[in-house]
Amino acid sequence: MRENDIRTIEKKIGYEFKDKALLERAFTHASVDTCATKNYQSLEFLGDSLLDFIVAKRLMEINPNAHEGALTKNRAQIVSKEPLAEEIDHLDLSKYLIVGKGENQEAITSQSKIKSDIFESIVGAIYLDSNKLAPCEKFVLSKLAPLFNGDSKHTGSHDFKTELNEYASKHDLHVEYVLLSKTGKAHEPTFDVEVKINGLDAGKGEGKSKKEAEQNAAKVALEHINR
Is 3 an active-site residue? Predict the structure, then answer.
């Protein structure tokens, strides 16, 4: 990654990296190298967890009287792939993604999932570089600020997992998601997930991410319940 590009990215995200290689890794697609330390996938994994925590913490701060179900639903809407992808578009960062030789960079970065991965990998990279939560919070809360006020066209998106969890809680049932398989290329996987209710098979779902597969499985389970 060129020095000018690094400086531009740092300016856009509002954080200057001590380890520039970590920033480059945050923009390196798995098609370049499947080694865990050579692409953004593990950074995205870390960033996903940090993002959930940061958003949950902020929602509790601004909605101290909100119930768990409402907080879970709001968090799911904010951390879903569409708003994260839109912020990457707004920052014009997807063009910096490094892809493998022979891969179509434009086709890869046109996917909302990839762009949301970039957002999460940036969060993970900031945390590892700073070894502090505060810079991650600053990035996340500054970039996603409108979403905490409900100013998003995605706030009406259907969260099937939350709906199923609320149903299970109301009827004292236990919900569990089981990963059945992960197939496809390392940088373009397909996940198959099954949801169990009290140990019984309730529905199966497929998706380009584990979260998407779980949502689709929950949707099937709800369809069975509502019949």
Answer: no
201 is catalytic: no
Q: Which of 44, 48, 159, 192 is catalytic?
A: 48
The residue ranges of every structural domain in the chain are 3-149, 160-226
DSSP code string of 16-82: --S-HHHHHHHTB-TTT--STTTSSHHHHHHHHHHHHHHHHHHHHHH-TT--HHHHHHHHHHHSSHH
pTM of the complete model: 0.70
Q: Which CATH superfamily is domain 3-149 in?
A: Ribonuclease III domain (1.10.1520.10)
Give me the pLDDT at residue 158, please.
62
pLDDT tens for each residue of 134-184: 999 999 999 999 888 755 444 445 678 888 888 888 888 999 999 999 998
Stretch 183-210: mean pLDDT: 90
Domains 3-149 and 160-226 share a fold: no
Instruction: Tell me which of 87, 117, 120, 137 is the catalytic residue.
Output: 120
In Å, how far are 35, 57, 150, 166, 226 from 159, measured between CA atoms? 33, 20, 15, 11, 16
